[in-house]
Amino acid sequence: MIDPVVKGTKVVFGPCRLSYTHVFQKHSFDGNDSEGKYSTNILIPKKEKETVNAIRKAIEAAKAEAIVSKWKGKEPKNLASPLMDGDDKDDEVYAGHYYLNAKSSTRPGVVDAKGVTIVDEEEIYSGVWVVVSVSFFGFDVNVNKGIACGLNNIMKFKDGDRLGGRVSAEADFAGINLDDESDDDI
After folding, report:
1. How many domains does the chain have?
2. Residue 1: its pLDDT value, please?
3. Is 143 domain-assigned?
4. What would the DSSP string read from start to end of the chain?
5. Is the residue at 175 inside a domain?
6. CB-hemisphere CA count at 13 Å for 173?
7. Are 101 and 93 in contact (CB under 8 A)?
8. Closest CA relative to residue 80, chosen from 147, 175, 2, 26
9. Which residues, in sequence order, are CB contacts of 151 under 8 Å at separation 6+?
């Protein structure tokens, strides 16, 4: 793991894995993608205590800002938190992790480890290992109040097993050898 970098409400940390990843095109779970956002869940192993503490520190900074700017000087009760316990989710991939649901209205920057922009959408997928930059901010929408996680930028660290059961074509066809003579039997 890298040493997490905290600047107020912003944190850069990783490597971590992505899940439910939509960072090249907006996505909406209700099907109205024109109203959607760029989004991904960020899985953080619970054993990465320094990263978790850095995230909590940035969340507290966002809370302090929102008390002044959104909540009229008082912290609301039952605030929604962006840092969630994966053990509470009915998904074995999330077990032993915390996770953030990071979103953005603008497309995040996506680069490789050398800082070169990634344009191939197949490079960033659910299961890839990345370093991420996120920012936390308070919200007050109707009766809901809390701290949300904004997705800033992603740097690919390395490939990982795809989540959701999909595997690469290379993995599916590894070891299959079709020679030119076999097409006579077809």
Report:
1. 1
2. 76
3. yes
4. -PPPEEETTEEEEEEEEEEEEEEEEEE-TTS-GGG-EEEEEEEEETT-HHHHHHHHHHHHHHHHHHHHHTSTTSPPSS-B-SEEEGGGSS-GGGTTEEEEEEEESSPPEEE-TTSPBP--GGGS-TT-EEEEEEEEEEEEETTEEEEEEEEEEEEEEE--PPTTS---HHHHTTT----GGGGGG-
5. no
6. 5
7. no
8. 147
9. 23, 38, 39, 40, 102, 103, 104, 108, 132, 134
Both tokens assigned to 105: 């209205």
- φ/ψ region of 31 (left if φ > 0, alpha if ψ in -120 to 50, else beta) reads left
Note down the domain range covering 29. 5-164
Indicate the pTM of the whole model: 0.86
Cα radius of gyration (the chain): 20
> Is 59 a member of any domain?
yes
How confident is the prediction along the chain (186 residues), in pLDDT tens digits per residue?
Answer: 799 999 999 999 999 999 999 999 999 877 666 679 999 999 999 999 999 999 999 999 999 999 999 999 999 898 999 999 999 999 999 999 999 999 999 999 999 999 999 999 999 999 999 999 999 999 998 888 999 999 999 999 999 998 876 666 777 788 887 765 555 555
Amino acid (1-letter code) at residue 70: K
Establish if 182 belongs to a structural domain: no
**CATH code of the domain containing 40:** 2.40.50.140
